[in-house]
Amino acid sequence: MNFARTLLSIKDLEIDYPSRDGHGRVTAVKSLYLNLGQGEIGCLLGSSGCGKSTVLRAICGFEHIKAGEIQLRDKVVSSLSFHLPPNQRRVGMVFQDFALFPHLNVLENIAFGLQHLPSQQRSSVAMEWLKRVSLSDKAEAYPHELSGGQQQRVALARAMAPEPDLILLDEPFSSLDIELRERLASEMREILKANNITALLVTHDQYESFAIADKIGVMSEGKVVQWNTPYELYHKPVNRYVADFIGRGVFVKGIVQPNNKVRIELGELQLDNDHSKDVGKEIDVLLRADDIQHDDHSPMQAEVVRKTFRGADFLYVLKLASGIEIYAFVPSHHDHAIGEKIGIALAIDHVVTF
Ligand code: ADP
Ligand code: MG
Predict the structure, then answer these.
(1) Local structure of 151: helix, strand or coil
(2) Which atom belonging to ligand 1 lies closest to the Cα atom of 29?
(3) Smaller CB count within 10 Å for the chain: N or C?
(4) pTM summary value
(5) Cα 59 to ligand 1 centroid, rounded to whole Å
(6) Nearest ligand to the C-alpha atom of residue 172
(7) Could you tell me the CA-to-CA distances from 276 to 162, 237, 270, 335 in Å, in that order?
């Protein structure tokens, strides 16, 4: 998969809008780079207003760009001097609210994008795509008769049916129940993978992005801060912003020791990289909830400050002797009371420091 041919390549992209007062321009996207291989699923992850939808609209061709370049299949589709019209880009889009036609049934919705085919073939192709999203029995149903998750699958089938090179999805789960989102994200991943479809979605929810994407770009203020696999983002965040955004964690102070070790309140940790020049210096060490294990027999104690039941485990907020609060996932049969002191131990693979 790493050697997949590049399908989408964005270089140094900049997009701005007229400012609200009408006198100047405001930058929405700046110095944005990304590469997506054929068959890969990418995700732009960032908080509201960071420029995610603007990037998708620019790839579709709905937005003109101010600088940089967008290439699809090694052909420039957007640059300062060239703009390929949206209908010639072979890019499909799934909108946040699915935008199904309410007066057309499910099969007609999917067939809508197949005007280039003779009418008989149109419904057999539409039926085929309906099968691929496991909704063959809903061909005659109208959108309002379907659940949110089913409507979303119809929207996906409609986008896939004309066989575009790339499908873009703008916050495809945000209008669905929170409990459903992660499951639907992995379901959608299976459908996209089974059909070898290249997709780029945007979301503000890291669990969704982890469930669906091969590569994630963490965005901040119009830039992709880090473009990487979910695993690398979690274990090797390039800066504090990414570390803060991904996973639940806190930064604690540490003092660098000889032999590439760092001493924190909870003990000594081995560092991955060379810190021989920093001995004696103070650095920040990231402690995530899964770095802390609960062990009834550990001499190291922390006080339970808050806890959230999550089914299989609790998310505990624990106060250390110094007053610093850290997080820990604890199996839910360890139901300790608020205020109680419990034993903890460190279980860190990669130490992340800044
Ligand atoms: P996101 O999808 O990440 O929430 P957007 O791409 O929608 O972010 O917006 C990025 C920035 O550009 C925001 O500050 C937003 O207010 C601004 N913006 C988006 N669309 C327009 C527009 N049509 N006119 C002016 N400003 C816009
Ligand atoms: Mg948006």
Answers:
(1) helix
(2) 10
(3) N
(4) 0.88
(5) 15
(6) 2
(7) 58, 22, 12, 43
